[in-house]
Design brief:
A hairpin with a 6-residue loop joins β1 and β2. α1 packs across α3 and α2 crosses α3. The protein is mainly α. The chain contains 5 helices and 2 strands, in the order ββααααα. Strands 1-2 form a two-stranded antiparallel ribbon. The protein folds into 2 domains: 54 residues; 39 residues, no CATH class.
């Protein structure tokens, strides 16, 4: 089965639906409509999600139905959740990659809890973000 393209082949941006057409009556609707989040799933991830739903979320049953190891099933579930925007990718959410909350740092600076030097170092990533 052909899948709806979701990424622009020229610039890799997300595509939007611009026109819908009814073959029965000839009506055409034009506009800018974002794609459904499920359209971003690969065929493999879509099949996994259907299996997961049929198993009513029982990972052991998904493992048995797909003949996969438990860690593989967990990994695929995590991948589907990230793709659907329901979870954060752990690889990109480690503390070193996290941006500091600049407004919180400025509030602490104004309250006298941090020095200008400490705030600048934190923003530059030279030190970990200070604890509350």
């Amino acid at each position: 089965m052909k899948r709806l393209p979701t990424i622009c082949p020229s610039c890799s941006s997300k595509l939007e639906i611009a026109e819908l057409h009814c073959p029965s009556c000839g009506t055409t609707v034009r506009g800018a409509y974002p794609l459904d989040r499920f359209a971003a799933l690969s065929g493999e991830d879509e099949q996994f999600l259907l299996t997961f739903l049929a198993a009513r979320g029982n990972l052991k049953e998904v493992q048995d139905r797909l003949s996969l190891s438990y860690p593989t099933v967990r990994g695929r579930l995590d991948r589907v959740l990230v793709t659907l925007g329901l979870a954060v990718d752990d690889k990109s959410s480690d503390k070193s990659a996290r941006k500091p909350d600049v407004m919180a740092l400025l509030d602490k600076l104004e309250a006298g809890d941090l020095s200008v030097d400490a705030v600048l170092k934190t923003i530059r990533g030279e030190t970990d973000e200070p604890d509350d």
